[in-house]
Amino acid sequence: MLKVDIIQTGAYAVNTYLLTDTLSGESAVIDIGEYDPAFGAFLRKNDVRELKYILLTHGHFDHICGVVPLKKMYGGDILIHGEDALCLESADHSLCSAVADYTQTETDDYKTFSDGDEIFLGETKITVKHTPGHTRGSVIFMTEDKIFSGDTLFRMSMGRTDLPGGSTKTLFRSLREIGQIEGEYDIFPGHGEETTLSYEKRNNRYLRANGNFGN
Which pTM was predicted? Predict the structure, then answer.
């Protein structure tokens, strides 16, 4: 069984998820905008002593600026899609250098994944699905009944595409692929409230859209 706990981190209130495989006790974090005392207390409250993975849905600063101090304190492999990997090495690529609210410690200590890769947290299988559009290396993480959608899909909305590496046409293609996923899933987005795949299929006009959309 997979236990999911959530806390918002950083000035842009990214949803940071703590995943714990209850059978093995192995833990991972998805996205972290900032490592601060509140986040440290959050991990201690959840009895985390060590992380197996730090998983990144994409490389924008508000999702990655806490990874280096987090790894220093709790270990864990930093994993990101290859198309966004340079964001970890360069504050210019992550866009951190353009904002005043964040400080990024650059690193080349990471590993990359690709579409279809499977990551195991104890007995829990996490499948990587490449969903470019918000960034070139955006992904969603899928378990048996959960989707961690990053900034690809929000409740009743979708990620922005006006930043470097973004493409409206590409994001709509990714959203159409998500809309073809069968089964019921709880969706945990990068910002905002949780939702479900069935709700978004019925109500999210971006997920339901078809046709040719921009560049």
Answer: 0.96
φ and ψ at 120, to 5 degrees?
A: -110, 125
Encode 88-101: b = buried (16+ Cβ within 10 Å), e = exposed: bbebebbbbeebee
- Which residue matches tokens 């929000």? 154
Q: Cβ-count burial of 65 within 10 angstroms (0-12 exposed, 13-18 middle, 19+ buried)?
A: buried
Backbone φ, ψ for residue 171 (5° rounding) = -65, -40
- β-bridge mates for residue 24, sequence order: none
Task: Say if 182 falls within a structural domain.
Answer: yes
Domain for residue 213, yes or no? Answer: no
Mapping DSSP to helix (H, G, I), strand (E, B) and coil, where does residue 90 land? coil
Q: How many domains does the chain have?
A: 1
pLDDT digits (tens, 9 = 90+) for 80-131: 999 999 999 999 999 999 998 999 999 999 999 999 999 999 999 999 999 9
For residue 153, what is the domain's CATH number? 3.60.15.10
Q: What is the rounded CA–CA span in Å between residue 172 and residue 162?
A: 14
The β-bridge partners of 30 are 17, 55
pLDDT digits (tens, 9 = 90+) for 173-203: 999 999 999 999 999 999 999 999 999 999 9
Residue 215 has pLDDT above 70, yes or no: no
How are beta strands 53-55 and 27-30 bridged, if at all?
parallel
Residue 105 is which amino acid? T
What size, in residues, is the chain? 215
The reply to whether 215 falls in a domain is: no
